[in-house]
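thread: overnight batch results

M.L. [08:02]
morning all. the overnight job finished for the chain we discussed friday. pasting input first so we're all looking at the same thing
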Amino acid sequence: MLYHTQNPHGGDVYDGEIRLDFSANTNPYGTPQGVLDAMSAVLTRVHQYPDPYCRELVKAVSEFEAVPKDWILCGSGAAELIYSYCEALRPQHAMELAPTFSEYALALERVGCQVERYPLKKENYFSLTEDFLPVLECSCPDVLFLCNPNNPTGQLIDLPLLEKILNLCDRQGTALFVDECFLDLSDDGVSLKSHLGEHPNLFILKAFTKSYGMAGVRLGYCLCADGQLLQKMSHTVQPWNVSTLAQAAGIAALQERVFLQKTRALILVERQWLQSQLEALGFWVCPSRANYLLFHAREDLCGRLREQGIAIRSCHNYHGLGVGWYRIAVRLHEENERLIEAVKEVCVWQRIS
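M.L. [08:03]
and the structure it wrote out:
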């Protein structure tokens, strides 16, 4: 648990009466019933230690991702794997985009690594272009962190550009960390997993948190052909780090392919509706291909909505953004309608005041 330490993320709905949480980008349908049933079925086994090697879960992931079992390591959420990766690799010089998920830099700084940031441009809708390639070549970091789709912008990195980055990293000895935690909820995002065998420097992060609404379970996994790196990572975490409930939940979740298809269809429609509503209010909205939207509005919007029991993600602490930037999850239509109505009320109040 955090002790007198600021939580830099969304999803903290425990301080105050939050009725609608748009600050955490989890599946709008919640947790599949099959996952809940799987956890209930193993409650009688919680007196036992969990499988320290996650044997059945690794087998299920291997079949789902079509990669060898030796290329898989499970963890207590994606965050644990980010920290164990940095502790195992211990780079001196890393590069990331700005803005992007803050936990990469926090994990890197913990091991004394210098973090260089490549600024994405608002006028380019925060997308990564080939202009990045000469900068990467000149910098030649020990490791490059990419989030695809990027958080909080929702922008996907085109596969041809990703492949050029991967090949350049190979040539100059840069490790490539690619966070694909939101990829399964994106519009036609393509994984780099087919490149793992030829590129042992490639590390892919996945999680059950967003796709299957399992944030409270804490379960993630990574894919990498570098067995020595995975072994080093396993030495950085405590034994039995993946609970019996989490392992059962993960195995069940990987059977929910129809659930994911249904979710992607909903997200596409509702994201477009939310964007049109926010733009009609005069807000600048970043076109997203994921299950969340980044937009710019009045500085007090987050606080005003919280007074109405609605949480959105303030992005003031993202490098490259600042005060007035917000991220919202795409949720069910009736919930999205309630959010927009609340935002309109705030705007009316501001005009009157």
